[in-house]
Amino acid sequence: MKLPVIKHLTSFIEENDQDYVLETIETLEALTEVSSLKDEELDVIGELISNMYGAIEVNKMIKEGAPKKEALNNFMKRVLGSIDQ
């Protein structure tokens, strides 16, 4: 996951609607079923999907009242904490 990408997507959600991101996730998930995709291509799609889910989670925290910067930092701490376990 890349914080700058999540931050940008969070801004996109704030300016538009998270439904755009959810529909994009569905589209990307459908693409993963293409049998001719290489592992590297699947990795890129997976990274995009995880960043989009991260932005949706950050947006949820912001809607619950957390400042944007705090929501981003807390989300990344959770991600890094889960990797360390």
Strand content: under 5%
**Gap from first CA to last CA:** 17 Å
Low-confidence stretches: none
The profile of the biggest β sheet is:
none
Query: What percent of residues adopt helix (DSSP H or I)?
Result: over 70%
Put simply, the count of helices is 4
Dominant shape: globular
Structural class label: mainly alpha
* Helix/strand order, N-terminal first: HHHH
Number of DSSP E strands: 0
Overall residue-averaged pLDDT value: 93
Radius of gyration: 14 Å
List the helices and strands and how they pair.
Layout: H1 3-15, H2 18-31, H3 39-63, H4 68-84
Helix pairs in contact: 1-2, 1-3, 2-3, 3-4
Protein model, in words:
The protein starts with a helix and ends with a helix. With 85 residues, the chain is an all-alpha fold. It is globular, with a radius of gyration of 14 Å. 81% of the residues lie in helices and 0% in strands. It has helices at 3-15, 18-31, 39-63, 68-84.
Brief summary:
This protein is an all-alpha fold and 85 residues long. It has helices at 3-15, 18-31, 39-63, 68-84.
